[in-house]
Amino acid sequence: MSLRNPYGDFEITDPQAMRALAHPVRLAALSWLQKNGPATATRLSEHVGASPSVTSWHLRHLATFGLVVDEPSPDGDKRQRWWKAVARGFRYEMPDTPEGAEAGRLLRTEMMNQSLETTQRWLAETEPNLEPEWSRVAGSANTRLLVTAAEAEAIESAIEELLAPYVRRRDAGQTPDGARSLRLIRLSLPEATD
Question: How many CB atoms lie within 10 A of CB 16?
Fold first, then answer.
């Protein structure tokens, strides 16, 4: 595992792939597959807000960048095309070129939009029904740091190293009794200089 990728995420380096993934249906489809496992376009369509044919088109587009691949049908039915994500997550660094930076910003924007939607849905649908012990561990913070760019990168690396064993434990078959999925949405927002 790379120190810069302790989760084994799919690393996106192609700005065209970033631009492709910045589409709301594609990002939602990939996110659903990463969380829930393989699905057909028909099954996935109800979760991404698109028709099965449109969802299928978007999945084929994601496949051109290696983000999803065909998966054999669980029941051997060759009439249905199943898709799976190639990794549980993805990551990218902001490219240096103007075209690449634009693609990275588009993807970042869509990721933040979907994170905000996820948070609002959680507040409306999940949080009111949580058991008290889970409600207590649902955290929120808004902390301002004074750091250099190198320190900010070191903080991000330290957080990822801390989280890596919890991210990878399902694949290792080490999920303890009572464990449940917890989504940790991290936003690091460097502020403008005065």
Answer: 13
Rounded-to-integer distance, Cα 90 and Cα 168, Å: 14
Q: Both ends of the chain: CA-CA distance in Å? A: 39
Q: Tokens 């970042």, residue?
A: 108
Residue type (1 letter), 72: P
Q: Nearest CA to 91 among 107, 78, 76, 77?
A: 107
CB 69 within 8 A of CB 83: yes
Q: What is the largest CA-CA distance in the chain?
A: 62
Q: Which CATH topology does 10-130 take?
A: Arc Repressor Mutant, subunit A (1.10.10)
Helical ranges in the chain per DSSP H: 15-21, 24-36, 41-48, 52-64, 98-121, 132-137, 149-168
Sequence ranges of the domains in the chain: 10-130, 144-175
What would the two tokens of residue 53 be? 């044919």
Reported pTM: 0.85
Per-residue pLDDT of the chain (194 residues; tens, 9 = 90+): 445 788 888 999 999 999 999 999 999 999 999 999 999 999 999 999 999 999 999 999 999 999 999 998 888 887 889 999 999 899 999 999 999 999 999 999 999 999 999 999 999 999 999 999 999 999 888 899 999 999 999 999 999 999 999 988 877 788 899 999 888 888 888 898 87
